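Q: Could you write out the predicted structure for this multi-component system? I'm mainly interested in how the pieces pack against one another.
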Amino acid sequence: MTISRSGLLTRRAEYTGSDNALAISLERVSRTYPGADSPALSDVSLAIESGEFVSIVGPSGSGKSTLLNVLGLLDRASSGRLAIRGQAVDAASERSLDTMRLRLIGFVFQSSNVIGDDSVISNAAIGLRVQGVPMDERASAALDALEFVGLEHKRKVQAKLLSGGERQRLAIARAIATHPRIILADEPTGNLDSNNSRRVIEYLRKLNSEGVTVIVITHDVDVANQADRRIEIRDGRITSDVETKSQPMPQPRVPVDLEPFGAASQQSWVSRTVCSLMDDWGDALSALSARTLRTMLLILAFAIAIGGMTGALGISSTTSNAINNRLAIASQDRLSISIEDGPGVLRDDFDGLRSGVDRIARLPHVVGASYVYSAVPADVHITRVRPSDLEPETPLSLHSSSKNYFNDFGIELIPHNIRSALDDPLAGPLAVVSTKAAIALDIPYSKKSGPAAGVSVWIDDQLVPIVGVFEPGPNFPEYADSVFVNASIMRAVSRSDLKVQVRTEKGFSAAIARVAPLAYSPSDPGKAKVDVTADIQSIRQDVSNDLGSLIALLSLVLMLLAIITAASSMYLTVQNRSAEIALRRAIGSSRWLICRSFILEGFIVGMTAGSLGGIIGTVTTLCVSWIQAWPPVLPPELWLVGVLLGATTGIVSAIYPAWVASRQDPAIAIRA
Ligand code: ADP
């Protein structure tokens, strides 16, 4: 026998007070979706008392889910008034709605939306976690809920291993673990066979018998028949509202005015914070470990970028140190003096040049002095086979020097016995080449005996035999690609640069710089100008600054790439996890909580990658310095820089995806 409820409906629709016996009341509620022609809910007035078991039926598209979303505070009505347990919620803030959902309402959706990689018990405890229930109480409350649906023996199993029916029972356990006053179930048996459907309904019935208000949307006639009241809805309007059972309403087991599972509020602030931090870490770690490959690739991308950055720091420190040392040494014991009118001196005053150089060489604390005469590279044409051939791709410079130069500056000439011939004005044309120039000119040579016998090159249109090779080494990069000839060849070159290179005892270069011009030319010291040694200090600084900024720029690009990679990967994760996020929101997680969990994931990924990157950077620096035979300079903060960089960039890359996740509309996402 069915009894019309229209009397109650009218009476309850006028309700404005705070009668706790009324679970939900709606007064002329409409919901029109943006862009829709007609409202999905139109002028719905309805009152549901605490402890009722109500089914909502109607054809597809009639507005059932819309109604359920409005009742469950997942969606707001466009107009009308809604009160939950006597409290008007139309103007309530989003945070208050989250709290009400968390404390009063439990959801069971058609798709169970369990988190497959988590255990059954931790699925059942999600709501308790959001409520901030302490861990020990949480475990026992979740176990109670699992016992209620007969799943306690599966508590440690991963939820993805459950059957469809078991998952739906788990969804019920999850919904009831927080002791909600109202259960809203949207097609809870939609995906189940008749046997499992019956069990699910039994549990809902059992819950109802313990005082919980149950509202079920269903297509299933059997389910609808189990309810005490059936509300039919068509085109967004209630077309019938009848009582289907005559038995008395169950007495609530828990007094309705008692707070739901509210142990959280009795905890101290500190233990609540610690508990929620541990939960956040646990959630983030389990989300990351559920997608191992993605997490590992993400960490790797970050680690490489951070490794690049910290490595860059280490390498730039090491390189600057090496350059500094070299320049410092050079500035301590080397001196370069430019002589005016090089071509003129070579042509008319070669003897003057030699005696000037000798005078400098005899100064106290001078180890040796030699002239080096360098042609402007564009003025000479050096080829191997024919003078008309193209020059090698590497531009070769042409120099001439006195006999002691190589010796004074420790440049090894092979073979050793050619040294004097180079400087002999009576000797015919001859040349020695740097090893790199020998390769560029295709000159066969051996490191023991020098160039193959009888090899020569063309310098302009003069055939010049090669009598030796030398390795200028890292201290003389300016001679890396060079050919040294005897002075007679240089006389043909019109534009040239003449210098006297002086090697002093360590620390005497500045003192010698002051007297060398006078020693070179006592009558006209202005002919000789010392290349300013002080410049070396500023060059040192510039080189190390330039290197630092170049490497920093490169690292920044790497870092940006890592952030973009991480952000897009997290964004995709948010898309994949939209159902889970919606579920958490439905349970009552605030937007901030959702946001926080993604940012924490970014932080964990970034920090792990940062530590790894710090190690990569250190190892790279060690390798580079070992290969270059430089003493490694490892700033002690290198590893810390890596970790901090990683953590910061991890957070930065998570901000946008976290924001997207927190803005998801649970009502829409749960349907998807
Ligand atoms: P039911 O649950 O009875 O199948 P719904 O409440 O899902 O019906 O939908 C009612 C009407 O509102 C349908 O016409 C549906 O297309 C429309 N609708 C539902 N959700 C949205 C939405 N987010 N935006 C626009 N239209 C929607």
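A: Regarding packing and overall arrangement: The pocket of adenosine-5'-diphosphate is lined by residues 33, 36, 40, 58, 60-66, 668 (CB under 6 Å).
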